[in-house]
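Q&A log
Question type: sequence-to-structure
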Amino acid sequence: MHSGAKALLAIGALGMLGSLVLIGSSSHGLSDVEEIDWAEWIVYKGGDGEIYLDETTGYTVYVDKSNDCSVSVSAMFRGEEHYDAYCDSFYDFDNWMQLGDIYPSGSGYYDIEVDADEFVLVDWTTPMNTDLEDVEGSAIGLMGCCLSLGILMIGVIVAASKGESEVVIGQNQVILFPEEMASEEGSQSESPQKTDGNWWEQG
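Response status: OK
Response body:
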């Protein structure tokens, strides 16, 4: 096999192996999302009021499960609304149900009003940062797999083309056995006598 084809196949195989390992480790981290204890990330519990929020953090609003998704929520800061309704039971925990998220545009005191007796704010970005890194790892691993597969295919094509050219060259060569070589030499030595004019008159 041609050295270039060998190099391509080796690079492709190693790249594929490394990408699969990266995807495997990242998917393990993603599987831990369901194991997050959101109760540990409660940053506020109480009623309406002006609450300080950090611009680098995203917050989720929860209310008691005796309520439903129709509970109205408002999070005003500098005259702008920062609340986005997103009622999803997947992130419910204990006796709290998710209503939506608050995305701060700056650090400061937000005027938060929730049409419920009590609500909690949960910092969802801190525990999810690790999971976002795992998502990036999976994406990079997938790209690596595609690139490695392409390199492997190129290596196979190069190896196949080199093999075909060697076969063609081999087919164009004529191999003479010793008996055939002797016969060929004899015919060549007799040919000059046959080409002489009036050879039958000689002697």
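Response note: Helices lie at 3-30, 125-171, 178-195.
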